[in-house]
Amino acid sequence: ELRDVRTVAFIDPNALSAGAWLALNADEIVMAPHASIGDSAPVSMAGDLGDVEREKAESYLRSEFRNAAEAHGYWPVLVEAMVSRDMEVWLIENTTTGERLYVQRGSDWVDDEGKPAAGWRRVRVVVAEGRLLTVTTSEAMRLGFVTKIVPDMQGLREAYNITEDPVVLADTWSEGLVAFLTSPAVTGVLVMLALLFGYVELNTPGFGVGGILALICLAVLFGSRFLTGLAQWWEIVVFAVGVILVLVEIFVIPGFGVVGLLGGILCVVGLLAILIGNPPGELPIPSPGLIMDSFLNGLLALTLGFLGGVVLCAIVARFLPHIPIAGRLILPETETGDSRPFDSDSPVSRIEVGRQGVTETYCRPAGKARFGDDLVDVVTEGRFLAAGTTVVVQRNLGNRLVVAPAEATA
Protein backbone atom coordinates (compact mmCIF):
# COMPACT_ATOMS: atom_id res chain seq x y z
CA GLU A 1 0.00 0.00 0.00
CA LEU A 2 1.29 3.46 -0.94
CA ARG A 3 -1.10 5.40 1.29
CA ASP A 4 1.37 5.40 4.17
CA VAL A 5 4.27 6.51 1.98
CA ARG A 6 5.21 10.17 2.44
CA THR A 7 5.68 12.01 -0.84
CA VAL A 8 7.82 15.09 -1.46
CA ALA A 9 7.57 17.16 -4.64
CA PHE A 10 10.90 18.74 -5.61
CA ILE A 11 10.36 21.60 -8.08
CA ASP A 12 13.38 22.43 -10.23
CA PRO A 13 12.81 24.59 -12.15
CA ASN A 14 9.03 24.87 -12.76
CA ALA A 15 5.74 23.22 -11.81
CA LEU A 16 3.12 24.69 -14.12
CA SER A 17 -0.27 23.41 -15.23
CA ALA A 18 -0.47 19.67 -14.44
CA GLY A 19 2.91 19.95 -12.70
CA ALA A 20 1.41 22.34 -10.15
CA TRP A 21 -1.46 19.93 -9.49
CA LEU A 22 0.93 17.03 -8.94
CA ALA A 23 3.07 19.11 -6.58
CA LEU A 24 0.07 20.27 -4.55
CA ASN A 25 -1.06 16.68 -4.08
CA ALA A 26 2.28 15.67 -2.54
CA ASP A 27 2.63 15.69 1.23
CA GLU A 28 5.33 18.33 1.04
CA ILE A 29 6.76 20.73 -1.54
CA VAL A 30 10.44 21.57 -1.80
CA MET A 31 11.71 24.08 -4.37
CA ALA A 32 15.00 25.10 -5.90
CA PRO A 33 15.99 28.76 -5.37
CA HIS A 34 14.85 30.06 -8.75
CA ALA A 35 11.83 27.83 -9.41
CA SER A 36 8.14 28.69 -9.86
CA ILE A 37 4.71 27.12 -9.40
CA GLY A 38 1.22 28.02 -10.68
CA ASP A 39 -0.29 29.02 -14.06
CA SER A 40 -2.72 26.11 -14.39
CA ALA A 41 -5.58 27.57 -16.42
CA PRO A 42 -7.07 25.30 -19.11
CA VAL A 43 -5.95 26.19 -22.62
CA SER A 44 -6.82 25.13 -26.13
CA MET A 45 -4.25 24.99 -28.92
CA ALA A 46 -7.11 25.48 -31.38
CA GLY A 47 -7.80 28.99 -30.01
CA ASP A 48 -9.44 30.73 -27.07
CA LEU A 49 -12.02 28.76 -25.14
CA GLY A 50 -15.54 30.14 -25.15
CA ASP A 51 -17.12 31.28 -21.90
CA VAL A 52 -19.11 28.07 -21.42
CA GLU A 53 -16.23 25.77 -22.38
CA ARG A 54 -13.80 27.67 -20.13
CA GLU A 55 -16.12 27.61 -17.12
CA LYS A 56 -16.78 23.91 -17.64
CA ALA A 57 -13.07 23.13 -17.65
CA GLU A 58 -12.21 25.56 -14.84
CA SER A 59 -15.00 24.34 -12.57
CA TYR A 60 -13.56 20.82 -12.55
CA LEU A 61 -9.97 22.01 -12.14
CA ARG A 62 -10.88 24.37 -9.30
CA SER A 63 -12.47 21.49 -7.40
CA GLU A 64 -9.39 19.30 -7.92
CA PHE A 65 -7.03 22.06 -6.78
CA ARG A 66 -9.30 22.91 -3.83
CA ASN A 67 -9.29 19.25 -2.73
CA ALA A 68 -5.50 19.23 -2.83
CA ALA A 69 -5.36 22.46 -0.81
CA GLU A 70 -7.75 21.21 1.86
CA ALA A 71 -5.90 17.89 2.14
CA HIS A 72 -2.49 19.53 2.66
CA GLY A 73 -3.29 22.76 4.48
CA TYR A 74 -2.94 25.33 1.69
CA TRP A 75 -5.23 28.32 1.21
CA PRO A 76 -7.95 27.12 -1.23
CA VAL A 77 -8.47 30.60 -2.67
CA LEU A 78 -4.79 30.76 -3.63
CA VAL A 79 -4.72 27.47 -5.49
CA GLU A 80 -8.01 28.33 -7.24
CA ALA A 81 -6.34 31.53 -8.44
CA MET A 82 -3.82 29.34 -10.28
CA VAL A 83 -6.73 28.11 -12.42
CA SER A 84 -9.11 31.07 -12.82
CA ARG A 85 -7.91 34.44 -14.06
CA ASP A 86 -11.10 36.30 -13.07
CA MET A 87 -10.34 36.00 -9.34
CA GLU A 88 -8.87 38.90 -7.39
CA VAL A 89 -7.24 37.69 -4.18
CA TRP A 90 -6.46 39.98 -1.23
CA LEU A 91 -4.48 39.57 1.94
CA ILE A 92 -6.45 41.21 4.74
CA GLU A 93 -5.63 41.75 8.42
CA ASN A 94 -7.79 42.06 11.50
CA THR A 95 -7.17 45.49 13.00
CA THR A 96 -7.58 44.17 16.54
CA THR A 97 -5.98 40.73 16.64
CA GLY A 98 -3.58 41.00 13.68
CA GLU A 99 -4.97 37.78 12.16
CA ARG A 100 -4.39 37.58 8.41
CA LEU A 101 -6.53 35.88 5.77
CA TYR A 102 -6.34 35.33 2.03
CA VAL A 103 -9.77 36.10 0.58
CA GLN A 104 -11.43 36.74 -2.75
CA ARG A 105 -12.78 40.13 -3.65
CA GLY A 106 -16.54 39.92 -4.02
CA SER A 107 -16.89 37.61 -1.01
CA ASP A 108 -18.18 38.20 2.52
CA TRP A 109 -14.72 39.47 3.50
CA VAL A 110 -14.31 42.02 0.70
CA ASP A 111 -17.29 43.33 -1.25
CA ASP A 112 -17.40 44.09 -4.97
CA GLU A 113 -16.51 47.72 -4.27
CA GLY A 114 -13.28 46.65 -2.62
CA LYS A 115 -14.35 47.44 0.94
CA PRO A 116 -13.15 44.97 3.59
CA ALA A 117 -15.52 43.72 6.28
CA ALA A 118 -15.76 45.69 9.50
CA GLY A 119 -12.65 45.34 11.63
CA TRP A 120 -10.44 44.28 8.72
CA ARG A 121 -8.03 46.17 6.47
CA ARG A 122 -6.36 45.38 3.18
CA VAL A 123 -2.68 44.51 3.39
CA ARG A 124 -2.08 43.96 -0.32
CA VAL A 125 -3.52 42.50 -3.52
CA VAL A 126 -1.95 39.09 -3.99
CA VAL A 127 -3.49 38.32 -7.41
CA ALA A 128 -5.01 41.06 -9.56
CA GLU A 129 -8.12 40.32 -11.60
CA GLY A 130 -7.23 39.01 -15.05
CA ARG A 131 -4.00 37.42 -13.80
CA LEU A 132 -3.11 33.87 -12.78
CA LEU A 133 -1.24 33.07 -9.62
CA THR A 134 2.32 32.04 -10.46
CA VAL A 135 4.83 32.46 -7.67
CA THR A 136 8.58 32.21 -7.26
CA THR A 137 10.29 30.13 -4.62
CA SER A 138 10.45 32.94 -2.06
CA GLU A 139 6.81 33.89 -2.69
CA ALA A 140 5.73 30.25 -2.43
CA MET A 141 7.52 30.04 0.91
CA ARG A 142 5.74 33.17 2.14
CA LEU A 143 2.33 31.85 0.99
CA GLY A 144 2.83 28.57 2.80
CA PHE A 145 3.32 26.23 -0.17
CA VAL A 146 6.98 25.36 0.45
CA THR A 147 8.63 23.82 3.49
CA LYS A 148 12.27 23.82 2.33
CA ILE A 149 14.49 25.45 -0.27
CA VAL A 150 17.38 23.29 -1.51
CA PRO A 151 19.84 24.10 -4.31
CA ASP A 152 19.76 20.79 -6.18
CA MET A 153 19.16 17.04 -5.94
CA GLN A 154 22.22 16.61 -3.74
CA GLY A 155 20.82 19.22 -1.37
CA LEU A 156 17.51 17.35 -1.33
CA ARG A 157 19.28 14.11 -0.39
CA GLU A 158 21.11 15.84 2.45
CA ALA A 159 17.95 17.53 3.73
CA TYR A 160 16.13 14.20 4.03
CA ASN A 161 19.15 12.00 4.85
CA ILE A 162 18.74 9.93 1.71
CA THR A 163 21.67 7.53 1.48
CA GLU A 164 20.77 5.60 -1.68
CA ASP A 165 20.75 6.97 -5.19
CA PRO A 166 17.17 7.94 -6.13
CA VAL A 167 15.48 6.25 -9.05
CA VAL A 168 14.85 8.91 -11.68
CA LEU A 169 11.96 8.33 -14.06
CA ALA A 170 12.64 10.05 -17.37
CA ASP A 171 11.78 9.56 -21.01
CA THR A 172 14.03 7.07 -22.75
CA TRP A 173 15.65 7.96 -26.04
CA SER A 174 13.09 5.82 -27.87
CA GLU A 175 10.18 7.61 -26.17
CA GLY A 176 11.70 10.95 -27.10
CA LEU A 177 12.13 9.78 -30.69
CA VAL A 178 8.51 8.64 -30.94
CA ALA A 179 7.31 11.93 -29.46
CA PHE A 180 9.37 13.77 -32.10
CA LEU A 181 8.06 11.62 -34.95
CA THR A 182 4.42 12.13 -33.90
CA SER A 183 4.73 15.92 -33.59
CA PRO A 184 2.60 17.98 -36.02
CA ALA A 185 5.65 19.42 -37.81
CA VAL A 186 7.19 16.02 -38.53
CA THR A 187 3.76 14.66 -39.54
CA GLY A 188 3.44 17.36 -42.18
CA VAL A 189 6.95 16.74 -43.47
CA LEU A 190 6.36 12.97 -43.73
CA VAL A 191 3.14 13.47 -45.70
CA MET A 192 4.86 15.96 -47.98
CA LEU A 193 7.81 13.65 -48.66
CA ALA A 194 5.57 10.61 -49.17
CA LEU A 195 3.67 12.49 -51.89
CA LEU A 196 6.89 13.70 -53.50
CA PHE A 197 8.59 10.31 -53.55
CA GLY A 198 5.37 8.65 -54.72
CA TYR A 199 5.17 11.09 -57.62
CA VAL A 200 8.81 10.41 -58.50
CA GLU A 201 8.13 6.66 -58.46
CA LEU A 202 5.12 7.01 -60.78
CA ASN A 203 7.29 8.93 -63.22
CA THR A 204 10.17 6.48 -63.34
CA PRO A 205 10.17 2.96 -64.79
CA GLY A 206 10.01 -0.05 -62.53
CA PHE A 207 10.09 0.11 -58.73
CA GLY A 208 12.99 2.11 -57.42
CA VAL A 209 14.28 4.56 -54.85
CA GLY A 210 11.21 6.82 -54.99
CA GLY A 211 8.83 4.01 -54.07
CA ILE A 212 11.07 2.75 -51.28
CA LEU A 213 11.39 6.22 -49.75
CA ALA A 214 7.62 6.79 -50.00
CA LEU A 215 6.98 3.52 -48.17
CA ILE A 216 9.52 4.44 -45.49
CA CYS A 217 7.77 7.79 -44.91
CA LEU A 218 4.39 6.09 -44.58
CA ALA A 219 5.84 3.39 -42.32
CA VAL A 220 7.29 6.05 -40.00
CA LEU A 221 4.04 8.04 -40.08
CA PHE A 222 1.84 5.08 -39.13
CA GLY A 223 4.38 3.08 -37.13
CA SER A 224 5.20 5.89 -34.69
CA ARG A 225 1.50 6.41 -33.99
CA PHE A 226 0.90 2.69 -33.62
CA LEU A 227 3.61 2.53 -30.93
CA THR A 228 1.95 5.34 -28.95
CA GLY A 229 -1.56 3.93 -29.36
CA LEU A 230 -2.75 6.75 -31.62
CA ALA A 231 -3.16 4.37 -34.54
CA GLN A 232 -5.06 1.08 -34.34
CA TRP A 233 -4.31 -1.82 -36.66
CA TRP A 234 -7.60 -1.45 -38.52
CA GLU A 235 -6.86 2.22 -39.28
CA ILE A 236 -3.59 1.19 -40.92
CA VAL A 237 -5.42 -1.52 -42.89
CA VAL A 238 -8.01 1.03 -44.09
CA PHE A 239 -5.26 3.30 -45.41
CA ALA A 240 -3.39 0.38 -47.04
CA VAL A 241 -6.54 -0.83 -48.78
CA GLY A 242 -7.15 2.72 -50.01
CA VAL A 243 -3.65 2.91 -51.50
CA ILE A 244 -4.11 -0.47 -53.21
CA LEU A 245 -7.41 0.63 -54.75
CA VAL A 246 -5.85 3.85 -56.04
CA LEU A 247 -2.98 1.89 -57.61
CA VAL A 248 -5.43 -0.56 -59.17
CA GLU A 249 -7.32 2.36 -60.64
CA ILE A 250 -4.13 3.86 -62.04
CA PHE A 251 -2.49 0.76 -63.49
CA VAL A 252 -5.28 -1.73 -64.14
CA ILE A 253 -8.72 -0.19 -64.60
CA PRO A 254 -9.24 2.24 -67.51
CA GLY A 255 -10.18 5.82 -66.63
CA PHE A 256 -10.84 7.06 -63.12
CA GLY A 257 -14.03 5.93 -61.47
CA VAL A 258 -15.57 4.34 -58.41
CA VAL A 259 -12.53 2.26 -57.41
CA GLY A 260 -10.18 5.23 -57.42
CA LEU A 261 -12.68 7.44 -55.61
CA LEU A 262 -13.27 4.78 -52.95
CA GLY A 263 -9.52 4.32 -52.54
CA GLY A 264 -9.01 8.05 -52.08
CA ILE A 265 -11.77 8.19 -49.45
CA LEU A 266 -10.25 5.25 -47.53
CA CYS A 267 -6.82 6.93 -47.59
CA VAL A 268 -8.29 10.13 -46.13
CA VAL A 269 -10.24 8.20 -43.49
CA GLY A 270 -7.14 6.25 -42.49
CA LEU A 271 -5.03 9.40 -42.18
CA LEU A 272 -7.64 11.26 -40.15
CA ALA A 273 -8.24 8.25 -37.89
CA ILE A 274 -4.60 8.05 -36.77
CA LEU A 275 -4.81 11.63 -35.48
CA ILE A 276 -7.20 10.59 -32.69
CA GLY A 277 -6.07 8.46 -29.76
CA ASN A 278 -9.22 6.33 -29.54
CA PRO A 279 -9.22 3.22 -27.33
CA PRO A 280 -9.48 -0.16 -29.13
CA GLY A 281 -13.07 -0.90 -30.06
CA GLU A 282 -14.09 2.77 -30.20
CA LEU A 283 -14.50 4.85 -33.33
CA PRO A 284 -11.96 7.67 -33.78
CA ILE A 285 -14.38 10.54 -33.26
CA PRO A 286 -12.83 13.74 -31.81
CA SER A 287 -14.51 15.21 -28.76
CA PRO A 288 -14.15 18.68 -27.23
CA GLY A 289 -11.04 19.23 -25.17
CA LEU A 290 -7.47 18.08 -25.63
CA ILE A 291 -8.47 15.32 -28.05
CA MET A 292 -10.09 17.87 -30.36
CA ASP A 293 -7.06 20.16 -30.04
CA SER A 294 -4.73 17.31 -30.96
CA PHE A 295 -6.96 16.36 -33.88
CA LEU A 296 -7.08 19.92 -35.22
CA ASN A 297 -3.30 20.29 -34.95
CA GLY A 298 -2.80 17.00 -36.77
CA LEU A 299 -5.35 17.97 -39.43
CA LEU A 300 -3.53 21.26 -40.00
CA ALA A 301 -0.23 19.37 -40.30
CA LEU A 302 -1.71 16.92 -42.82
CA THR A 303 -3.22 19.74 -44.87
CA LEU A 304 0.01 21.73 -44.96
CA GLY A 305 1.97 18.58 -45.75
CA PHE A 306 -0.37 17.71 -48.62
CA LEU A 307 -0.20 21.23 -50.08
CA GLY A 308 3.58 21.23 -49.69
CA GLY A 309 3.79 17.88 -51.45
CA VAL A 310 1.70 19.14 -54.36
CA VAL A 311 3.95 22.19 -54.70
CA LEU A 312 7.10 20.04 -54.62
CA CYS A 313 5.66 17.67 -57.21
CA ALA A 314 4.94 20.62 -59.49
CA ILE A 315 8.49 21.90 -59.02
CA VAL A 316 9.93 18.46 -59.74
CA ALA A 317 7.83 18.09 -62.88
CA ARG A 318 8.79 21.53 -64.12
CA PHE A 319 12.42 22.08 -63.22
CA LEU A 320 14.24 19.05 -61.84
CA PRO A 321 14.54 17.08 -65.12
CA HIS A 322 16.58 19.97 -66.54
CA ILE A 323 18.97 20.34 -63.61
CA PRO A 324 22.34 18.58 -64.19
CA ILE A 325 22.95 15.60 -61.89
CA ALA A 326 19.75 16.22 -59.88
CA GLY A 327 17.66 15.70 -62.98
CA ARG A 328 19.06 12.23 -63.40
CA LEU A 329 17.36 11.18 -60.19
CA ILE A 330 14.06 11.33 -62.06
CA LEU A 331 14.38 11.52 -65.81
CA PRO A 332 17.97 11.10 -67.02
CA GLU A 333 18.14 13.21 -70.14
CA THR A 334 20.42 13.01 -73.15
CA GLU A 335 20.82 15.58 -75.86
CA THR A 336 17.79 15.90 -78.14
CA GLY A 337 18.54 14.94 -81.71
CA ASP A 338 21.60 12.95 -80.75
CA SER A 339 20.25 10.23 -78.50
CA ARG A 340 22.82 8.57 -76.38
CA PRO A 341 21.07 5.73 -74.59
CA PHE A 342 22.55 4.14 -71.53
CA ASP A 343 22.31 0.70 -73.13
CA SER A 344 23.26 0.48 -76.80
CA ASP A 345 21.28 -2.76 -77.12
CA SER A 346 18.07 -1.16 -75.84
CA PRO A 347 15.19 -0.83 -78.34
CA VAL A 348 14.97 2.81 -77.26
CA SER A 349 18.25 3.49 -79.08
CA ARG A 350 16.56 2.70 -82.43
CA ILE A 351 13.68 5.13 -81.97
CA GLU A 352 14.29 8.69 -83.14
CA VAL A 353 12.64 11.95 -82.15
CA GLY A 354 9.52 12.57 -84.25
CA ARG A 355 8.63 8.91 -84.77
CA GLN A 356 5.02 7.87 -84.17
CA GLY A 357 3.81 4.98 -82.09
CA VAL A 358 0.74 3.74 -80.22
CA THR A 359 0.32 3.44 -76.44
CA GLU A 360 -0.22 -0.13 -75.29
CA THR A 361 -1.14 0.79 -71.70
CA TYR A 362 -2.63 3.76 -69.98
CA CYS A 363 0.00 6.47 -69.36
CA ARG A 364 -0.55 8.13 -65.98
CA PRO A 365 1.83 9.69 -66.99
CA ALA A 366 4.23 6.72 -67.34
CA GLY A 367 3.32 3.69 -69.44
CA LYS A 368 4.33 1.65 -72.48
CA ALA A 369 4.02 2.29 -76.19
CA ARG A 370 4.74 0.22 -79.30
CA PHE A 371 6.91 1.50 -82.14
CA GLY A 372 6.83 -1.15 -84.85
CA ASP A 373 7.95 -4.36 -83.15
CA ASP A 374 9.46 -2.56 -80.14
CA LEU A 375 7.53 -2.15 -76.87
CA VAL A 376 9.27 0.47 -74.75
CA ASP A 377 8.72 2.61 -71.64
CA VAL A 378 7.34 6.07 -72.31
CA VAL A 379 6.28 9.04 -70.23
CA THR A 380 4.17 12.06 -71.05
CA GLU A 381 4.88 15.55 -69.77
CA GLY A 382 2.12 15.34 -67.18
CA ARG A 383 -0.79 14.24 -69.39
CA PHE A 384 -2.76 11.03 -68.91
CA LEU A 385 -3.27 9.07 -72.12
CA ALA A 386 -5.57 6.14 -72.79
CA ALA A 387 -4.34 2.92 -74.38
CA GLY A 388 -4.44 3.06 -78.18
CA THR A 389 -3.47 6.75 -78.42
CA THR A 390 -1.15 7.69 -81.28
CA VAL A 391 1.88 9.47 -79.85
CA VAL A 392 4.95 11.25 -81.20
CA VAL A 393 8.42 11.03 -79.64
CA GLN A 394 9.50 14.38 -78.24
CA ARG A 395 12.74 13.36 -76.54
CA ASN A 396 14.87 10.27 -76.14
CA LEU A 397 15.96 9.86 -72.51
CA GLY A 398 18.07 6.80 -73.02
CA ASN A 399 15.99 4.55 -70.75
CA ARG A 400 12.63 5.63 -72.18
CA LEU A 401 10.92 8.17 -74.39
CA VAL A 402 9.04 11.38 -73.71
CA VAL A 403 5.95 11.38 -75.89
CA ALA A 404 2.98 13.60 -76.68
CA PRO A 405 -0.35 12.90 -78.45
CA ALA A 406 0.00 13.14 -82.21
CA GLU A 407 -2.91 15.61 -82.54
CA ALA A 408 -1.21 17.92 -80.03
CA THR A 409 1.90 18.12 -82.22
CA ALA A 410 0.14 18.42 -85.55
Query: Helix fraction?
Result: 25-40%
Mean pLDDT: 81
Q: Main sheet, how many strands, which sense, barrel?
A: 5 strands, mixed, barrel
Look at the helices and sheets and give the structural class. alpha/beta
Termini Cα gap: 88 Å
Low-confidence stretches: 325-342
SSE order and pairing:
Elements: E1 8-11, E2 14-16, H1 18-24, E3 28-31, E4 36-38, H2 51-72, H3 76-80, E5 89-94, E6 100-104, E7 120-127, E8 134-136, H4 137-142, E9 148-149, H5 153-159, H6 173-181, H7 184-202, H8 209-228, H9 233-251, H10 258-273, H11 290-318, E10 356-359, E11 366-371, E12 374-380, E13 390-396, E14 401-405, H12 406-409
Parallel strand pairs: 1-3, 2-4, 3-9, 12-14
Antiparallel strand pairs: 4-8, 5-6, 5-7, 10-11, 10-13, 11-12, 13-14
Which key phrases capture this entry?
five-stranded mixed barrel; alpha/beta; 40% helix; 410 residues; three-stranded parallel sheet
Account of the 3D structure:
This protein is of the alpha/beta class and 410 residues long. 40% of the residues lie in helices and 16% in strands. The chain has twelve helices and 14 strands. The chain has helices spanning 18-24, 51-72, 76-80, 137-142, 153-159, 173-181, 184-202, 209-228, 233-251, 258-273, 290-318, 406-409; strands spanning 8-11, 14-16, 28-31, 36-38, 89-94, 100-104, 120-127, 134-136, 148-149, 356-359, 366-371, 374-380, 390-396, 401-405. Strands 10-11-12-14-13 form a five-stranded mixed barrel. Strands 1-3-9 form a three-stranded parallel beta sheet, covered by helices on one side. The chain has a three-stranded mixed beta sheet with strand order 2-4-8. A hairpin with a 5-residue loop joins strand 5 (89-94) and strand 6 (100-104). Helix 7 runs antiparallel to helix 8 and helix 9 (233-251) packs antiparallel against helix 10 (258-273). It is elongated and about 110 Å long. The N and C termini lie far apart (88 Å). Mean pLDDT is 81; it is low at 325-342.
